């Protein structure tokens, strides 16, 4: 790995270091939950610029960092784009049913609150 490649590699927790309280914290924010729902609905990784969020760019960066540091998403650089993928396999192995339950509950809440 070149020095430049190493500088563009983002730290991610190993599966053994992912904690339930961190995942729940990451999923407790409505903006982060929107990100996770979109990633769960996509078969591909999505760039940060794909998301239309009601917050500033710096706040968006913060939300992605929280998701990455808690082990919910994996971020990788592809050229100048930062790509995001849901760590579904890791989360399902560590906390069976949690992600699906949260996504189902979020969809039910959205339907309940819709005008």
From TrEMBL:
Keywords on record: DNA-binding, Transcription, Transcription regulation
One Pfam family hit: HTH_5
Highest taxon listed in the record's lineage: Bacteria
HTH arsR-type domain mapped to chain residues: 12-106
SUPFAM superfamilies in UniProt: Winged helix' DNA-binding domain
InterPro entries in UniProt: ArsR-like_HTH (IPR011991), HTH_ArsR_DNA-bd_dom (IPR001845), HTH_MetalResp_TranReg (IPR051081), WH-like_DNA-bd_sf (IPR036388), WH_DNA-bd_sf (IPR036390)
Keyword Ribonucleoprotein: no
Protein's recorded name: Helix-turn-helix domain-containing protein
């Amino acid at each position: 790995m070149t020095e430049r490649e190493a500088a563009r590699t983002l730290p991610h927790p190993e599966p053994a270091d992912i904690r339930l309280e961190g995942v729940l914290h990451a999923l407790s924010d409505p903006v982060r939950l929107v990100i996770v729902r979109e990633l769960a609905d996509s078969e591909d990784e999505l760039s940060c610029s794909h998301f239309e969020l009601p917050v500033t760019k710096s706040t968006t960066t913060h939300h992605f960092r929280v998701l990455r540091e808690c082990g919910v998403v994996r971020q990788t650089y592809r050229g100048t784009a930062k790509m995001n993928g849901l760590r579904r396999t890791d989360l399902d192995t560590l906390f069976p049913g949690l992600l699906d339950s949260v996504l189902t509950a979020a969809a039910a809440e959205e339907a309940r609150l819709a005008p």
